[in-house]
Amino acid sequence: MPEGHNIHRRAQDLTEMFGGQKLIVMSPQGRFEKQAKQLNGKQFNDASAHGKHLFLNFSRSRVHIHLGLYGKFRTYDNPPQEPQGAVRVRLIGSQETVDLHGPNRCELLDNTGYQKLVSRLGPDPLRNDADPEVAWKKISSSRAAIGTLLLNQSVIAGIGNVFRAEILYLLKINPERPGHQVTRAEFDALWKLTVQLMQIGVKHNRIITVDRKQLGKPLSQAKSSERLNVYKQPVCHRCGADIYYWELGARTIYACDQCQV
Ligand SMILES: [Zn+2]
User: Residue 234 Cα, ligand 1 centroid: separation in angstroms?
Assistant: First the structure.
């Protein structure tokens, strides 16, 4: 599933591509046809993101998209080819066309619906309005494992399975440690690191948690395993111990039990 950095990057790309244009909007698959008719010919102002939720902001209308496990976008130069497979929404701008396939959610949201949705989400480290205190209050008062709390979108919005493993490894925090045993200093470091890593993720459109000077090659030539420290890695780069993996919060977590106390 895409993590928050993918969605923010998508929002930036759509804003750059379509910002200020009146778009042709259609639903080749038909499941968004009524809404597409309402949006067709309307001005697209910009796209924005909160965690893993993407918003297409048209004048007086907002589309909420959650990609889920299977959703994806495809971009074509105009004139676009015929829609391939089940295309929920096709957006045609002056130069390019974007197709949305298989989203978990794709709906029109009014302001009340938008406020309700966003109020359920925790602070998003990539947003300027994020208030880390909200996340600290939830983590510091919870007996749940920090590895589980980091996947909970109402605690911090945007962290997914790869980021949680990498962040906890870099901070030497065991994923099973209860939230209330995470110190304030550790939380502050966690928030700061999450902001940094997610910003790198937006810039390069991929998760990179290793030191790029140590990588010794251009990013474009690095395999995904070379860009990460612990996720799906066999051994710990720091101490050489085996990396353990197990189910935590319904997803597989990776950690070094020598380094992560
Ligand atoms: Zn280790």
Answer: 11
